[in-house]
Amino acid sequence: YSPQCVELEHSLKPFIPDFIPAVGDIDAFLKVPRPDGKSDGLGLLVLDEPSVRQSDPTVLSLWLSEDTKQHGAAELKKVTSVLSPQSNPRAVDSWVDSISALHRSKPAASVTYGRAVPDIDVLMQEWPAELEELLGAVRLPPARLRCSLTQYADAVCALLDVPVYSSRVQSLHLLFSLYLEFRDSTHFTRRS
Length: 192
Known about the structure:
By secondary structure, this protein is mainly alpha-helical. It has eight helices and no strands. Helix 6 packs across helix 7 (168-184).
């Protein structure tokens, strides 16, 4: 018998390079203890950085909560403010830049549909010429059509080949995603 060498993946990552708060040398953890013998709590309770430019604790907690996907009431209690923003525009710009970097680092929102839905690129394909001529001659259903909202949503989804199931939430999500793709398409922005 020879045992198999199985490498187990560990989830504890104590030093994530993205979250090293100080820009500069990494802390050597050489601290002078307090003369009264009490614990400082440096690095555990209070942010301890050797750098001149220190991280904002609120921004750092937002980064960590975003990375761990733990959003709760504890993060909402932490609010920072600049005492005189007119005389200290650098602090405001720093805050805006750090929050912008946080939002840029977020992955795009993704939705897992319960049933198979067509791809956005398939829905964006050009319609046959006969159908486009018919749509030019016949008016589309107006917004003030005498029907319920669910019936109107079903009609719009059917017109654009978006499948409708018992729950219309996923169908409407696909419909609005299709709208956003058409709105942001370079083909249509060039034509206007």
